[in-house]
Protein 1
Amino acid sequence: MSHLRNDLRQRAEELVALYPRKRSAMLPLLHLAQEQDGWLTNEGIAEVAELTDTTPADVRGTASFYEMFHLEPVGKYMVSVCTNIACLLQGGEEMLEHASTSLGCPVGSTSDDGLFTLEEAECLADCNIAPCIQVNHRYVRTTTPETFDALVAELRDGKRDHDIPAHGTLIRVRRSGGLRASKSDVATERADAKAARAKRDEENK
Amino acid sequence: MTDVKSTVTISVNGRSVEAAPGELLIEAAERAGSYIPRFCYHPRMEPVGMCRMCLVEVDGPRGPTLQPACYIKVNDGMNVVTDSEKVKKAQDGVLEFLLANHPLDCPVCDKGGECPLQDQTLSHGSGETRFIEEKRHFVKPVEIGELVLLDRERCIQCARCTRFSSDVAGDTEIAFAGRGDQIEVATSPTKPFDSVFSGNTVQICPVGALTAKPYRFTARPWDLEQAESTCTTCAVGCRVAVQSSGNRLTRLLGVDSEPVNHGWLCDKGRFTLDSIDGHGEAIDPLNAETRIREPLVRDGDVLRPASWGEALERAATILKDAASSPNGVGAIGGAALTNEGAFAWERFVRQVLGSDHVDAQFGDGLDGGLLQALPKATIDEAANARVVMTLTGDLREELPVLFLRLRENFVQRHNNLIEFSFGPSGLRPVAAVTMPVRPGEAHVVAKALTTNDARVAKESTVTDAQLDEARALLGESGEGVVFIVGRPNFAESAVVMETAIRTLAERFTGAKFLPALRRGNVMGALDMGLGPRLRPGHGYDASCEGRDTLAQLEAMRSGEQTAVLLLGGGLLGNVLDPDAAVTALETAKVVVVTGHGGRTLAHADVVLPAVVQHERHGTVTNIEGRVTNVTPKISSPGSAWNDVAIAAELAEQYGQSLGLDSVELCAKVIEETTGYPALSVMNDLSDEGAVVSRVKERIERRALDPMAFPGIKSTNTVGLAEFSGALVGGPVTTGAPRAVATLEGVAAGRGVEVGHYDAYGLALHVSRRLYDHGIAVQGSPALANLVARTTALINHFDLDRLGLVTGDVVQVNAPKGPLSLQVAMSDETPRGTIGVVFGSLDEEGHDGTTSALYDPTSVIMQMKLETK
Amino acid sequence: MATLDAPKIVMARADYDDSYTLTRYLETGGYLGLRKALSMFPEAVAGEVDAASLLGRGGAGFPAGRKWSMLRKSPISYLVVNGDESEPATFKDHYLVERDPHQLVEGVIIAAYALQVSQAFIYLRGEFALGLERVQQALNDAYEYGALGNKIFDSDFSLDIVVHPGAGAYICGEETALIEGLEGKRGFPRIKPPFFPAVTGLYGEPTVVNNVETMSNLPWIVMNGGAAFAALGGGRSAGTRLFALAGTVKRPGVYEIEMVKNTFRDLIYDPALGGGITKDRAIKAFIPGGVSAPWFGPDLLDLPLGQDEVAEKGSMLGSGSVVVFDETSCVVRAAWRITKFFSRESCGQCTPCREGSGWIERAMYRIEHGGGRMEDLDLLLDLCDNISPGLAWPPQQTTICVLGPSIPSSVNSAISMFRDEFAQHVNEGGCPFD
């Protein structure tokens, strides 16, 4: 009885199969669990533990290392405002304060309607458009209080659903293609190529 | 180019030091007398270099740089400085950083007085703090499991507990969460810290972050006295420091014994102390928490206190009357005795009572003769073997520290494990080959392994591929292979496992065997002759017709045996069919020698109080045949005697002398008459004991690092002692010549007829758990509520076939009538099997399940389920 | 004046809106480098990279060719691309993965061929949602186009590439921590030795870890030859390089310019580049290579943009990010914010980093907000010294990885260069710039 929906469970199993060792799929699987639940529930964590042959304590401990994983519920929109050095110099702190007022929630909390969670972010690597803001890890490139408020209005009205999916959904492009050859075939291919080069080296001598 | 040096030379503070290539600098320097301070480094775990306390200056291409000594390996010519100003500043800096957020609650901290952080601060710290910021705060303390509490403010993030959990125990129930200065040790909210090894994390915690509930606030370290001894809760033989305050046992800590436990203990061994002295209040002799303080004799329905004289006389009369008729008397038990106690009682029963009916096992072990005949492996050999094959129950539950030693072999050294898998097993995740074996099939699978083409029966759960893989690993002669052999299933006649073991031993002549019998000193008791055909000092008499425990109980029920001497009070908590045992005890007269109360005493006519572990002097023998000493730390309550004295005094009632006036004398007699190293081990506390029948190997005791296992006090018997160098001869060098068991000899007349499998039934598998219905757990409130409830484990294949799901309650048509059980899916249970835990409690708190299921007339027990 | 006549090597498609599509990529010479590489022996491809003297663009600046040749003795198991760009004010890899993912993919395939590796992973920063999608799409396209997968372009070389999303941890940019993340663990940097993943990398096997920008250079290098690349730049700093310019400048952005031939002044002031300081204010200081680097004053504006040139002056070119402070910027606040970043991002393993960063951050906060004491300055420097003994550059360290010695850079620079400003904070009981 899987906690993940059928389609996500299938993707989870595909992810595990991509890696030489199951545990390597940990981060992608945690993203997947968040895609379903918006945050990491005990059930989601248990399923990731099962998929990776680890324990819930191990999965939880691993997830808690990474800022993007949330062990408590968060809003539909995670609003991340950078205040790191480049943005600090361009009014990042003021923008964060404005966002807090505008969304009606203190930094690090979720608005009463459950729609927005506001966080103070470290550098988001878009420093030429500072202060930098992401919503659900999509750059929104609003640098003034006015454009920020306009964005919030759009989000409330569902006008950004096409480019900003609900929190948790990270990569909407599914992997297609991939190496169909078995690992042993590849190993043979490598060995053959190596032998051919060795032979050529021998001849060159 | 082939000049591979066996040692390298490094310079430590200008002094030349020899070291092994690849040795860690911290170890090499310490041996050379330069102790480098450390917190996270632990000699029994992989270094992580987290605390940075061990920074020293090492010369390199860029000149001397600060390097952590705990993971830098020595190189020839390495120049190391551990005492420069630069080193001192770096180490002082680390200490200051560690203290920055550390709470100032030493006066109320359990660790105060034995805390490495406190000690280092007192000896190195500046005395005043430069830290004026607000300290980090966490809710404290958090109860993370039944036995352990966590105070995150005190934690210094050394990763010892988390490394132990993930790397040593392999259960990862605690792990780091968060990062940076918000990093903390955490459990999952859905899974408490209930590892059977949880106490080890408390012991190795270098601060008071992890504390043990049973010990918490019970004593101050400076009030504790300590003696080194051996834990006899199971048969691994872990070395322990037994600590007491006054005459009260307070704590058991693991001592780092190189050949045995590496400092680790299981929670059952560690936390059953209160079954010994924690409950002086209980007085009901039928209660396992009660200590028997004075002799008791039965007057009608009550056991009343009596003088030793009266009790001995009553006991002697009972036994004498019974002994007057053939097969009228016998003795059961003895696995909880010391070797000396076992020897004395063996002498009493055979020489004074003239009976050969002695058995230290309860029908759940293996034939003592077979065990003698097998070429033995040590724990170390098993922990380093190229291939290990287990024919046992779940070793994590049965012999926990052996599980740790073995696991290390597969995880660290990548050697291979082949499992005969009878049910859930803690080693499963690290096994190279897992063969699901149904009840009554082990000998068939073993037979198949000994030939190159034979297949197990078509319907078997073992596949051809598994057999092939196992054969390939075992090799032609089994050289480098250790078989670990036990009784994985008590609902299966012992003859199945014994046949399997013999088959493997005859075929793989290069292999060695390690017995996995679990009860405290069962190996010592067998070595002392407490078995039907056994004789003291590894002797064997094939012609002897002594009866084992089950045969004696049957003889009691039939009226042939009219009295029994119980050596220990745990019979009813240990036999598979306690109902039948009760009938036997009600029919016969019963003399019990025990230090603990328990329900078996309901059937006693005389109870003679004996001292128990940590109250007595002597030697014990572990599964590998290692003889070590046990030491009294406290005096027993009331007027209990040592078993040697009780046996001798009881013999006096017959006007006979056992010639064993003291434990020391008993040990001397054992050694003189059999060559068994009882006296030499008892007298020489400087080494790791001696393995019976082997040339004594030089095992230097590791110097005791108070950082490695904080809390153990340096005593003469712990660490730094010189090795005596004496050799113990091969098998039985002194005393009268005697026969020894051979594989052919023990096989005589023992065939296996399993009969056919009922396609609609499920074969019963009864396994052991660590927390069971034995006296140690039941007498310890700290552990008693950890006993599992009864659930029947069934493979999903069978569940589907029966239309059942986890949680369903089914009716089992058992030999003694219907029984209701809740089922749960377990794919570790082989198909066609129903797994039940021995001694687990039903919904009403009774442990009678296996009694109802038990059928002694059959090699295996098959039953049908009905959905309710 | 800046020297801007060098070819655009990794930003050639900067002017196209659809630069990330396979169509545009193919129209602009895409995958020709790979075709050429496949016609060469793997060693010859590696030889071109060696000849290019391409220094790794991740921050440490280790020669990519040498990194590969170190491994020649034993076969490499895995190629891992480090796209976990998180160094504050560094945003060049962000540009490359979002705007030119095929160039990255082609570079990875070329590198994998040179190293004869059949499994590669691209570890991308989790916050790059769009970048992750673009790279995944590029991989899908490449598989379909035949540039990836079985028998690439009908050669006997096959390769699988997996995109691995990070999840928000700066430390995973450290290559051993990145490998831990790829193994599904907490991003704890591994203890050294072994110093290089080449010895013990992913799953304990020999692994090459290279930066996104490093990989993105490979198609051009193979097409044009290593010598052509090496002819650009100067000294050990060959080729062009992406510089991310941020802070109080008129035109912050990513610029690809020749190394050494240009100076910091060119980058900051040239109208085609930074265009000067915001509102034409005076420059107060700048960070030459990411917030881990010690700061420079205006006196070093004419220093060439070269790895060795910057190192000689006691700092580093690092991740190629230059942050400019003008005369109105508060250096106490800047240094505090950078320390706060390191404190948040410390993995928590090493005591000096874990406890030291938090302590320093709280003390700096106190000074900025009016609770400072003059003795705090020496205390701060001593704490810094306990994390990085000697406070020199390149630094000594008491920690497993270089995050530790990165903490003191800003604090030490700020106190050493602007002690008066700290005194003003203490004396005035708060920030004079507020």
Protein 2
Amino acid sequence: MRAKKLTAQLSLSVVVVTHNEGDWLRKTVETFLSTLPAHGCEVIVVDDQSSDGSTAFLSLPEFARAQLIVTPQRLGISGARNLGGRAARAEVIVFSDAHVIAHAGWAEPLYNAAKLDFVGEVAPTVHSMHEPGICGWGFTWNAPSLKMHWLKRRGKGAYPVPFLCGCFVAMRREIFERTGGFDEGLIRWGSEDAEFSFRVWRMGYECHVVSTSAVSHLFRKKFPYEVKWEGVVHNTLRLATIHFGSRALARVVDHYRKFAAFPAAAATLADSNVWQRRELIQRESRLADSWLIDRFEIDVLR
Amino acid sequence: MTADAQTIHGTPRVGVFVLGMHRSGTSMTTRLLNMLGVPLCHPSDLLGRVRGNEKGLWESGTLVRFNDALLRERKATWWCPPRPNNEWIRLPLTADRLEPARNAFCAVHPSSQWLWKDPRTCLTLPFWLRALNFSPVMVVVTRHPFEIAASLRERDRFHPALSVALWERYMHHLLPNLAGMPTLLTPYERILSDTPDWCDTVSQFLGAHGLELNERTQRGALRHFADTSLRHHQFTQIDIGVQLSPQQLALFDWLNTRIGISSAFDPSGCPHETPATDRIFTQIQHRYRLRASTSDAARIFATPKGSPEINRKRPVRPPATAVVISRNEGPMLRRTVRRLFATLPSKAEIIVVDDASTDSSYRPLQKQHERIRVIHLTRRIGIAGARNLGAHESRGDIIVWSDAHINPRQGWFAPLATAVAAPDVGAVGPALSPFFRPKVRVYGLAFADEALNVHWLPRQAHTPYPVPLLPGCFLAMRREVAHIVGGFDHGMIGYGAEDLEMCLRLWKRGLECLIVPRAVVAHRFRAHPKAALEWELFMLNLLRLGTLHLGRENLTRFLEVLRSHDKFDRAFARVTASDAFLRRSALTRESRFDDDWFFQRFEHNLFSVRQHTTNAISD
């Protein structure tokens, strides 16, 4: 009875960011259009300068419900998501990759979890598209490289985890507006999801994985577009600079200094606004940088 | 005794009034004119830095009190000016004030040329013109009333409507009284946008009216002084929440027609005051019960003749201050101070900054001589901090920073002082020789490799000449330069490199570092500390040096060489977590030249080999 009542009020904006995703974009948009009610829900596709013509299908009449936004120049994942998020009108915003199949009934549990006051960000169980039985419920770090380490299932329903994979996350629009969305100082790809979750935790909200909601995500061997290692190193260093104390930061630097891309990434960092960002986050945060590390016993940074 | 406002020791007095509404940039203008060579009031009378004017007010304290007293006699204050008419000037009470005012003015301006700024003078100008019975040259600064309103809102929490009314009334006081005066009227933005060009214009103007200016003033220093940090409010159209009345708009437009030099200012056609302005000030007068107060004024005007408020007991400024920094130097400290004392000119002072020593080596110096001051710190602040503290406490025109294990040779001071006095010179250093090998001498430093290691240089000439870097163990600067560049970098909390950073900063600002071969100082060289903790601190300063000063590509190369060193990770993390990146962008803004210019200037080919390594990844 309760679920039915909430379903009637479902108010979701799904933001799908794409860059040269080919046929996957169409499949992704189709799953949202088929699983979401027409009333109260919208699908926004943000095309971050695709060159493969993969967004052409959106002009077909059956896709009239999906809205297309084209970025003025290449924004990278954070900028494109924020652009879509700002256009969203519903109460809860879902940020999805463009190679995702949502399972039937994914929306209500996720929506209900996101609506809780103390919850900042939620994500469903993420299945691997072509490897049945392989799933992840949020992630943590177990190496100073800050590489994503998927977590096993830890509970029933919705429960807190350190970080949520950016391939599919949802949040109330109020949270999106308060945080200002994803950090646009992160170049192209990488670390934007962990950075956002970290920020949400520090602002005093929780990040929950909703095990009753599920999507399948395509884990690819290769990017369909170029991702520079230098940018990835920069993003990791930026995340660490913004959120870590100098001891944890030194661990990360110690790991990355071995790589050939490190000096250039560090120089890029020096010319960026990372320091102002760090100050801003320190001011706005309710919890200290080490709090999350202690809360989830991320030993590698302690 | 009646002071003579027209001549001093037979030389005719010439002077400049800097006028304009509060928050219009009059302080900045005054300092610029001062840097061009027009002397301000006696330094002991100068008002210091305040909130909102971090670079100084440049006002005479005595004359501000005079102006305030004059206003109080008319039931007014600077924030509630009287109606703009000149009837008060003919009152007998006012006439009594003329002579004390003239005496006070001459006492605080002891030189034949002078420069006086006080925005209140806009309201009291006819009084001062009468008191001084001759015509000064007028430099008037104007600014958009909205910017003034924004600035006053921030500093004094004034309502914008009040600020705009104040601006209008100040202008209506000032403009009619400028009639016939040689005047330069400049908008604030014009000074900021092209400071050197503006300085040329004003030099010409003042020169034509008999002022002698210092032609060698460094343009870099001028430009730096007027840098963007002084632009309290950069916008011209902000949401101030008030509108300009038609009269105020007309006044602003009219002011724009008078921009530039006029040998005799013509106030004709100036629009009338908005009626609402008068209502605002009448209301304020009632609300705050402003009454004519003559007792206050009487006290100020009755101060003994000559110099009303100048404390004559304050000693004259010493020609130089030696700042000796010490930490557990033992008997060397006393020897160093004794040798410095013997070789400095007789009026120079010595400040010993003891950085939390535990060996009480500073104690015997504490009561040795009145010109030796000892500052003992209970908590360690590091080399850069100690040097800056000493400089802050110094009063000499030249600051000589010295380590506590040196032995200067007789006759070092005069050649150093001569070399450092040139306006383009930032810092000077002597030839150094090891303590017990007087024949061996080194003459400044240069970078040796892309890790910013340094090596000593041999002598290149007999007269002072530029070198890339000067060691911090014995370094002299003009106090004004030290003030402008902001002293040693406070973030250099570790060991070493703070002197290199200072020299690089000076060069990038267009200020030279010179070696003076005739000055010789013996220095006890010590091996670099090897202990692990000290190494991290050494690394910290080195990384900070590179981070502050190298451009993106050179920084990349620098990090590439250093990253495999021990403790790099910790030092880099500490640099990253400090304000280094912020300081980096600030330095880029305020520098005239970049690091590549510096390396080319001295034909350093450290960074000629560049590698770019970028790999694509897959997950």
